[in-house]
Fold this protein.
Amino acid sequence: MNELALVRIDDRLIHGQVVIKWLRYLGCNEVTIVDEELSEDVDLQTVLRLAAPRGVKLRVASIDQVGELVEDWQPCGSCAAGSSSAVSVEDSLPFASKSQNCRRRVLILVKTPSTALALIERGLSIGELNVGGLAGVEGARRVYRSISVTPDQMEILREISSRGIRVYFQTVPEERALELAEVVPIPEAVQ
Amino acid sequence: MQINWIQAVLISIAAYLGSSTWFAGVGYFTVYRPLVGGTIVGLILGEPIAGMQLGAAINAIYLGFISTGGSLPGDLIFAGYIGTALGLAAGLDAPTALSLVVPLGLLGSGIWFFRLAVDSLFVHWADAFAERGSVRGVAAMNLWPGQILLLLLYGIPTFVIVYFGSPAVQSVIAVVPPKLVEGLAMVGGMLPALGLGMLLNYMAERRLMGFYLLGFLLATYLELPTLVIALIGVAVASLHVQYSGMVQTDESVVPESGSPDSTGRTSLLSRSDLIGSWFRWLTFSHSCYNYERLQGLGFAHGMTPIIERLYSTRDDVALALKRHLVFFNTEPNVGAVVHGVAVAMEEQRASGTQEITGEAINSVKSGLMGPIAGIGDSLTQGLITPTLLALGIGLAQQGNPAGPVLYVALESAAIIGISYFTWMQGYRWGKVAVERILRAGLLRPLTEGATVLGLTVVGALTATVVQLKTKLSLTVGPQTVSIQTDVLDKILKGALPLGLTLLIWWLLARKRSPLTVIVLVFVLGLVGTWLGWLGWG
């Protein structure tokens, strides 16, 4: 059984922050990217595979393929949904032994909030969602550090949050996380 | 010593320059770092060697500084430039000054965030120039507003703190009880263990820790100079890489395509266009770094000579400028390959020989920038820089000016070399360049070897730059046994610094934040000294 460590929204997928900070912090040895376009772009998949650090397995899946994979991803007993962090400190220590039942610790990366919602609707059960990187595009409003969100994306994040999932903005583990609730809602008129 | 106002101005300008964009892309790796900054401040104040040694010690605390969004809560300019200035002015020895430096670094840490936020404004000015098809305007917006802002953000506080602060520090130290000063010195001796611990947390793998031990023992028992230990590190690294069978001579690893895809490729760009574009990317990629587009404006600046050459109508120019002003971020040196690829694609688009849309160019950029950043940051910020820094710090600490000089030379060569190589590969080979670079199979043995070298030097540094001794002694009858010299040193010299560094690594691995560790070190150091447990004896 695989253990799901974190689901992260980051439109740059595997990059500096993720590779250097998050994978180590979470003790993950597998990354699964869920993205329609990418699941069809074999060249870019090759690049991503080569870019993944040694010892980290990379999988790329389309949203439909996720159905089979979802059964595999269960939070371990120690990472119950709704707890304040997705993983307990003990489980992610390099010094502690890994729990017996978990073969792989998985980080799921998606590019957009809508993909994250699609995963949740297909049965992925998570306690929290990390919004780590969204580029500043037209109509987007900068929310925190380099994370910019369009009104549509904000709607989706609120929808996810209303299902009892903690949505927070955080670029790297050592910096403070910003909760969705702390973000001033975009007035309807501005859209 | 008194710092006169001329020196204060010079130091302020130096502090700005340390954060500036003018040093061909190596500024962030050289003048930004306390090792170099401390030496420069020392030169200004007439004490270059003392400045260098202080800068080196300060840099040790920040050895684990990897910026992919910030790591240690601390600003290197405040810690390095202002810290060295105040330390020299107050005549403090390195350990005492170090405990001053950490609060200074924290004080300055808001500047980074403020700068990235305000720079977002300048991007919009650049957008306006792009709309009008003004290549010069876009380049100017990347260059001037952001740099002037930096000059103010670093120059003014530096002047104020250095000019008015140094007499203040001197008078404060004079009234502070000697026990407290001793305690602060103790803390300062322990703080470098934080930098080393952070680096170990990032770089070390348990199977390679033997090399760390090797470096440590060479330094503490054989007392070899740092450079010699580094050379021994190179020797063992190359042996290790060969004997562990990492060097692949397997032909199947070599990429199959024999030559760049030159079928139907038109050449519209001259050599000087290419060099000009590369050089602008190298130098100005972070000149106006901002939260909204990150390196986007810098990317566009790098494209300006290309756009000028390829497009002549105002609309084409405007479109091209806007195309490259979008969000972009990667590690800039290995990531130079993406810039080179974009240039090649623009050339083909302009020549019309292939049907290439603007969206296609941007989708290649955005697809590649992420993974390249992962590799690039691991290589340049996570491996090459800390290893060379450790070497430079070790030398500088021993009073050898070769420390900063050698560091700047080697680091600059590495950064500029990587940037030029990957950029040109990207231009010649297009998208395939990325795969070529990754597949060459060179990457694994090189990074493994570099990690071994890094660990060896860091082990040596643990012995020399972390200072911790106990004053405790046991009296049994007529005999007094000093725990430090009669017990600890007889078991393992340097046991306390080693133990402290490993302890800090353990704490960091347990997800304690660096700030927590700093507080812990302060408490341990001050209380330990006050209780009479810690001290030089």
About this structure: Confidence is low (pLDDT under 50) at residues 250-257 of chain B. Residues 271-381+412-440 of chain B form one domain. Chain B touches chain A through 47 residues (CB under 8 Å).
